[in-house]
Amino acid sequence: MPEPGTTAPSADRRPLQFGVTVDPTSADPGAPGRLARVADIAGLDLVAVQDHPYQPTFLDALTLIATLVPQTRRIRFVTNVVSLPLRPPAMLAKAAASLDVLSGGRFELGLGAGGAPDGIASMGGPRRTPADSVAALEESITVARLMWSGGTPHFAGRHYTLDGVHAGPVPPHPINIWLGAIGDRMLDLTGRAADGWLPSLPYVPPQTLPARHARIDDAAQRAGRDPATIHRIYNLTGHIGPTGSRPLNGPVALWVDELTRFTVELGMTGYLYWPNRDHERQIELFANEVVPAVREAVSSARRVDGR
C-alpha cells in the first residue's frame, strides 16, 4: 500500500481512462485510421495525435483528427499536445469546437507552450521566454473558453485579444483542456486553470510524480479548485512482449503491475500508450489484456483500502 502522502487526491476519485497515441504519418496516410479503428473496436477511451507542424513527414494533427472522427463510433480524440505558438487560440478554439460538433462531443484539447523553439521559429512563430510562454498559454485557455461560451466576448491580454467576436459554435460537451507540463510554472498553471495534466514517462519519471502532483494540488487549492477534478494522464512508451525489463518493456503481468502502481501509489488516472513497434498488435494486447487487468487490480486495491 502507498506510504502516507504519496497518492494524489485524485487517484481514487477519477475514473481510469486508457488510450493510444497514433503517429500522424504521411508515409502511410491510412495507418492512423487503421489504428484508431482498432482502438475504437477494442473499447479504449482515447486516441491521441501529436502536433509537430515543423516535422515534414507529419500530417497536420487537427486535419488528421477530422478524418478519423467518421471512421470511429465512440472513442474520443485528444491533441498531444498542440503547439500553441503556431496556433492562434481563437482559431484553435474554433477548430476544437468544430471537431467536437462533428464528432458528437468526442474531442479534448491537449495544449503545450511550445517545446521546440527552433521548429516554431522556422515556421514564423514567436520565440518566447519561458515566463512569456506560460503567460501566453494561460491567456489562450481564457480565450478558448470564451470562444466556447457563445455570445460576443471581449478579452484584452498581453499576447491575445478578443474584441466582441461572435463566438461559436458552442461545443456539445465541455471540452477538457489538458496541459503537457513539466516545469514548475506549467504545473502551477495546470493546477489553477486546466482540466488535466499530460506528462510523458521519458521526461517525467515515476519517482518524480508525487512532487509534481503536490505542486499541481497546491496551485489548485490556492485558486479555490478541488485538485480531485484534475485528470492525470500518463504518456507511455514501450513494448508488451514475453521478455523485457522495467519500466515498460515486458510481459502483460509487468505492465499490469506497473500501471496499477502508477495509479494506486502514484496518483495517475489514465494512460496513453505509444507502441514503439508492431502497433496494431500492441494496441490489441494493451486493450484486451493489460487494461482489464489493471482496472480489476486497481478496484481490488481500493476495496482493500476501503476507498
UniProtKB/TrEMBL annotation:
Pfam families: Bac_luciferase. Residues 28-243 form the Luciferase-like domain. GO terms for biological process: alkanesulfonate catabolic process. The keyword Acetylation does not apply. One of its GO terms (molecular function) is alkanesulfonate monooxygenase activity. This is LLM class flavin-dependent oxidoreductase. CDD domains: Tetrahydromethanopterin_reductase.
